[in-house]
Amino acid sequence: MKCPFCGHPETQVVETRVAEDGVFIRRRRQCGHCDKRFTTYERPEVNFPAIVKKDGRRVEYMREKLLASFKLALRKRPVSTEQIDNAIERIEERLLNLGQRELVSSRLGELVMRELKKLDKIAYIRFASVYRSFEDVDDFRALVDEVRPQK
Q: What percent of the chain has pLDDT over 70?
């Protein structure tokens, strides 16, 4: 790696550490020419599929948007941040395992609904009622009946 100070093409790794969360590796390097030290970070590069919207637009997958959807559906519900993070990780793992370059937004919505149904029935109904854009009360009733425990 090039030295950011003098541009010398050869640097030596002096120390390597895995970050606390295990997401990246921190390396301390020293230039063989000017002896200055600097830090680099190594992270895995992951390519999620592009999301194809209903109108045909293609947008980049954004974890932040997914998290915002979960938080909105789960607002004032007894679900921990850790549970939400785990649900999103399961969705992302599924996206990567599909091995597709593009994914229709409806498929992503179905994955979100599946996770919300496991986490909290009320959040599931909130999300589904907006996502499926119900036209009348009967559509809503059918969804509630779907999650209501059978007697």
A: 95
